[in-house]
Predict the structure of MYND-type domain-containing protein.
Amino acid sequence: MSSAGSRSQRRAEFRGSLHRCASFVRGTLAGHPGTLNLPCFNDLTSATLVHQSCFSDVPDPAQDPETIQAILDAGTAPLSSELLSRLILAHNGAKGSLPDEAAWPTRLTLDAATAMRAAALSVRTAALALPADAAVSAEPLRSLAVRLLGDLCLDTTLSALAEAARFVREQLWPAVQSAPAEVAATAGSDSLPVAEVEGVSPAVVAAAAKPRKRVGMINPSSAATPPARTSCQTEGGLLLSTICLHLGAVLQMLAGAEMEQAAPHGGSSDSSAIGRTDLAAAATRLAAGLKHSGLLSELCAAVTAAPCCELPAPDATSLAHFTLEMTTIQYNMTTIFSKLTRTHSLCGSPVVAELLAAPAVVRLHVAMLEQVTLYRAGSRSSWVEGGSGGAGGTGGEGEEEDDEGGPGSDDEGELEGSGGAGGAVACWPLLHPKTLRLSFGPKLQITEVLHSLVTSVISLVTVEAPVNKEAAAAASKALFPSLASCAVTSAGVARALCGRAEQLGRLGARERAGANVTPKDLVGAVMCMMVMMASRVGGAPPKEVAGCLPDLLVAEGWSLRMLTTPAGLVGAKPEYVASAVYRLGALVRGSSLAPPRLWDMLSPAAQGTCVERLLPTHLLCSMDRMLRYLAVNDAARGVAMSYYEAMGVLLTPLLRASLQRWQQRHLRRQQQQQQCAGAPATAVAADEGAAGTGGGSARHATHSGEGEVHGDGEADEVWTVQAEAGVLVTLAKLARQDVAHLSDGRSRNGSVPDLFKTNSPLTCTALLLASAGCYKNGLPSLLPLVTDPTAAAAQQGGYGGVGGVEWARTVATVRRGLGEMTDLCGSEALRAIAALSEEMAAFMKRPGSASSMLKAVGGPNGQPILSANVKLLARSVLWITCSCSPAALVAAVPQRTLVVMAQLAREVEKRMRRLGGAAANPAVASDLQQSSGMLALAVMVLTSDEALRVACVPGWLWGVPLPRGSVDQVECGLEHLSQLTGPDYAAICPIVRVHSAAAAPLAGKIWRTDREASWPMVMALARKHLQTCGAFSVGSKVRWWSESFARRDGAGGGSEEALWCWPPRSLRLCNNPGCGDFGAASEGELNLKKCWCRAVRYCGPACQKEHWHAGHKVVCM
Ligand SMILES: [Zn+2]
Ligand SMILES: [Zn+2]
């Protein structure tokens, strides 16, 4: 049969039979010009079946000039279309004329459906003769294909198919719902429909399409038995599936040719032989026809209205026909949407956008995304068990599931997930692993399905977003008229895809051979979804965006978390992370993307909701991992500004919520233990008659025991600030590395200093470290949550001494962690601020820097960038001096920072004078005044602590008595301060003078001679002034650190202060300042080894060696 002779003979036979059948059909049609009754219907049915039977012998391959020529000559597409339309009319006419309404219509309708399918199959088989790669086909196939395409896109053809789709939805499927449930084997017994992905050979299709001879012989006796509802389902499914394939094949040729032309490949030089004008004309005609006929809308409406599918049992080896059909249709619809979008370059995006904005299409699109949000990877429902239990060779995808369960397990999420799977919305069989396996075998998997569901829906937005923001916004608005549902759906999609990526585990990073979509493409799908969401958010009113903020943030939270999975890391690009973090910052802080200061518009309760919802996404951990990922890829500096904005708002609330949750878990556990311990004692009492109560509490114990199964491991874990806020450690390390490079002058020579810029990485990082770590609303605000260990021990004495002591120790560890984190943030920020100021001051002293200075001091738009930066840094220095431990401060040498900041302020002042003085630049003058005020306060804070006074600011502060009742005045000698030099920074006159009534004890004292003896008076003066101006926390007489940590000595036991040392002991961090190892997911996971002095850790011998020579040699004991 492979010989050329027999092939040409078969083609001739095909041509002859096609011709004969066409004549017969024409005759039948002519014989019933306007009659619409049962005999007419029967005749048409017969003609249809005869016509269709030709196609059961389509010569293989069908994509052949002769075959297409024959199909064209016989007028197959127009003829079948007319048959289809007339069949529907005849059916409706016959239905109305029949006597017995109850039994007849369904039988008749079913037969009509079968006949219509035969007609549609003819069209579809013709469509499958279209070569998918028409652009590279040789003549005459190419021009014949274009002609056939024209036939298939005829208005009459598309309208007839649209009517058929409507017939399924309006006449066939309602019968399913009303008919009694009954199992009958009348339908689908002859041929099992074969699921079709693109590329299935037409021969298989033709074989499956053989009509049933039984149908069409309508007589009263067979009508006595009403058809089974499964027959109506199945026929509807088959008809719809046929229509889908027609549209899919037509779009495939257009999209395929478009891709061929777009792809720059030199091999086929004649690839443009199929004229772009021809293609564009065909695409335009198809789009117009789709719009006019409503075919796309009808298809979508029918798919949305499909009856529920029966899902297979876990041990099933075959599927119900209807389930198989719907699975195929659902998947083919996604490919139709993707291909349709691809034709946008041929017929214009507005045309495609209009088609996709039709209400029925939007409804299906939303339903598709909703299906994705319902997907829960790894939940213990039948979904996953079915998937991994299959006989196919791809069970490996599910195997790693348990290995990767750790980080992804969040209790509340799983509950919600199982609810969703069995919830009110029926799940599509397409997303059921077992069904998918049985339908498509190993070639299509959940990953691909998820990917294609998401990308096919939003592909137009994705296409438009980079080139035409308005069009993208319009397309996303057409999809989601409500921003709220957009946010909820985006969050759900991101979560579902993240879950899938986590389920894939390490296998996610491996590409499956021959797969169109690799797991890492899931990342692309999530990113597209986020682009869509951003397009929808853009331009929305601030109030509306604020109302949706929880879901918007959660969506970004899940998408960032997805990037941290192995599959995510393979698919990740630094741009993805950068844009995700940028969007996060923009959502809370405002930008061109979102209205300004959204976070501040929220009520505290709404902020709380955001935080609660963000917790399960482990946003802070994702932020840490992604920062390290960017550092490894040398892209971390680009995101510093976004981190500053996002973390500045979200870090502390997230940490607070996580800390509270941990404590609540602990408390619950403790109560349970107490109940268990107390049970035997109360058992006797329960006998008295309190059986109900006893039973109740027992049940409660059992129940909560079950609830804890998931989180039991977590409950035992101690909350550590490093695990939760490791991102601060990474930021500190980045700042430290930057400073190391800045001071050795390797990387910054000649470039514009950081402080000239509004968003320089090191400045942003230093500001973030200072505000998150040292500002009173940052980390320091968490300490009161961690209750006083002595008080906690006393309170828990009743629970039994051991637990109380243990808890007290745990609490002390957490407190210490928080304090050390503050120290780390503060000291790295202090060094960074010094380095930045030094660099800037040196730059300004250099001749020739005047031109850039003009811009920086005055600012290009009148904005004083430099002086504003100086003010921010001075404020940070003040916070740091308030919150860090003496050990950390002494090691960080704050006096050096103060001196170089004074030098910088002096340089700015000088420059300002040259430009016309304070009057010419009031903003700069005000910045400078505030800066010097804050530097003076920082000196006072250091003086107020006995442990710091001598080590840091010896004799810098002095008091001048004022009459009682007068207002304090502070005088800061910036010039003197700027002239001090290390290492002891001793002053030759007071740097800061406080004119105050509180300085009365210093009356008559002289700084030069009496300053050593008068230090208690000076310290008291500093404390008094700081208390008055509100620098200390409310009611406190000492700086925050002393208030929180140093005072505990009095309570007995070991002095907390005595143990405090620098560098931190409980925080893990490579101590080499130049360390550039960001390899592990977090600093805590680096394999750090201690120096033999046990005070410092290193990630490896190289870092140890470098730090040894850089100074550790001197201090190592
Ligand atoms: Zn290192
Ligand atoms: Zn050492």
